[in-house]
Amino acid sequence: MDPATLLPIADAMPVNWLWFQVLLTTTTFLHLVAMNIMLGSGFIAFVAPLAGGEQMHPLSRTVVGTLPYSIALTINLGVAPLLFIQTLYGQFFYTSTVLMAVFWLVIFLLLIVSYYSVYLFNIRYDKTGHNSIMLGLAVSLLILVAFVFINNISLMQRPDSWLAYFKNRSGTLLALDDIALIPRYLHFMLASLSVGGLAIAIYYEFKRRHGSEDVERWITYGCNWFSGSSLINFMVGFWFLSRLYGTVVNPDDPAGKVFFLFVAASIISIAIAVINAQVQRVYKAAAWVMATIFFMTMAREIVRNIYLRDYVNLTELPVINQYSPLLVFLLVLAGAGGLIYWMLKKVWSELEVKS
Amino acid sequence: MNYPIWQLEFAGGGLLIAIIAIIHVYITHFAIGGGLFLVITERKGLRENSQEILAYVQKHTRFFLLLTMVLGALTGVGIWFTISLLNPAAVSKLVHVFVFAWAVEWVFFLTEIVSLFLYYKTFGRISNRTHLTLGWIYFISAWLSLFVINGIIDFMLTPGAWLETADFWDGFFNPTFWPALFFRTFLSLMIAGLFGFLTATWIKEEKLRTNMVRYCAKWLLAPFVLFLGAAWWYKSSLPPHLQDLIFQEMPEMKLFIKAFLVSSPVLLFGGLFMAIRLPTKVSRPLAGIMLIVGLVYLGAFEFIREGGRRPYIIHDYMYSTAITKSELPEIVQGGLLQKAKWVKVREINDDNKAAAGREIFNILCLSCHSVGGPFNDIRKLTAKFKPESMKYIYESMGGSRPYMPPFAGTREEQEALTYFIFNEL
Predict the structure, then answer these.
(1) CB proximity B262 to A under 8 Å
(2) Structure pTM?
(3) Which of A188, A190, A276, B125 is the most exposed place for a label (fewest CB within 10 A)?
């Protein structure tokens, strides 16, 4: 059976596909930044006391104190790319989701347990102290959620694997036969450790600049996580590259050329970030890491386009051309952005005055 | 038909979505009315210069945040995930038509998150005026989320002129948009009172506890008349044939209509009873019972609204089987198995009759019927029939059984389905 015959008919989009591509790429970038900070810092907060003992508890306590916010933001910033990917690639995404329905549905339950574990850790900290089990549970579930997500994204871009549905309709398929799955997952997880480490360094650098003492060791600690994870990820990245379809890394293919440029840019930018982190210029390192995540997000989009180009041409998808709702969205986004900025600024300034 | 089908048996017929949706809808209504409850109660504390009331608001905010920000928000994700699995074609349509409405709602939700965290973390640490402003920003964002979602939910029940124009605004500001918005707004205020009981009855100081429980009773009772008025307006806004279908022709709806009608006076008198000075041994369990009654109340309404769409998932456009009204004649003529994408059997013969019946069952029945489960169990429903009488059932679908879509297939496919139901289930 030709998998192309299974492809559902796409619904019409309200505006040109390019709008959704831009929105998808931008919001994916924001989600990845938040997710990396959340998952990476959470993992470090969990393993640091296991390896370093009680002296690491203050670090762990501080990081877990920020997790309710980073989890909330990661989930919220995950909603937008999920919405735009459904608009642009819905016929692929819904299909893969149904094929792995059981795992997909479990995601929100895992997130609820993980989120409440983090809150419980924080609420009970003064009474019970550091609770490794609760934190371990929270972090493990987040790692599991990431694995399910990676599976769905892998499954959606390989329609040839969909034929397995005719042997198993119970919603328990995964993309385990995808040779790129494991390196892709490791690449994402190691990126989280890098960014999580750097986020810790930035947090303490910020504290240092605002008069906190004895924070140097945490800045160094965060930078070491960042540099170490980035170097390992560099090698995993090449493993991942070697497992992608040949067309992705084909220099004769125009899309392959663009992909190569983004990968090269990301290698250069992460190298500069690591150099800056080694001399504890963490803000500069952060700027270069943002650039790296952006380049990798772009490369990610190109990989998807190459994988799916035999099945869909985005420029040929039906369009209704009704732009007024888009305008309303952009106005609301700008207004809310301004309002959020005002709230943060106002609260910050009043807290500064009080302290 | 366009998408693969998750072959649920016991949990088929909408069980999953019913469980997740009722929890989510209850908490999100609390997230709206409860937001106003927080700022108004804080203002009351400030006006009366009562540190005790302010301390209560702070504690209530923690409860509010833990419930709405985690369980409320994530069951929302859960609903989205679940309906995408149960009816991807319908979700795809709703996402494509209303993508920017969903996107606007996402922005409001982001504003809610930031404002609520700031509100919670800054009690007594910033000026009263700024703190109240944060609370107002939270409430307005939450209500605007309702404004957006309400448009999409009611589009599914009454798509109105969108059916002809395919215009976003026609679909969004559909015939039941405004009454449903008022209905849900008043309901959210009442639910704020119900959740208020839960925390107020745990205040240690007796005088304050009595005052705050009475204060919560006002939140439940004051919007009640307006709520009933909005309910009447909502009902009147439904097209006459929908009113007939929901309130007269669907036997399943009777239980939910009854539950809704019975819960109204229970909530009313329960609210009045709570206002009496009661010992905590009585008031605390009663607060829990009132919360459950509220859940039944809202659950009954949602069942009525969801059920009212039948046999459609988007009224007059797409059937609950994900087959659109416009596709139906071609399918009846040419056959479901010829038209469907995710089927293995295309031609029916004696050897594959059961397999073909399974395919047809998956597409046409599973969205509303479970196999051995609590929702519309197909085994129980067909137990009283003989195979040869099933053809009368198929003929009555969309006719004397208006809550079922017309049978989308050929006579041969009907026979295969009957064979499957009576021999394989």
Answers:
(1) no
(2) 0.95
(3) B125
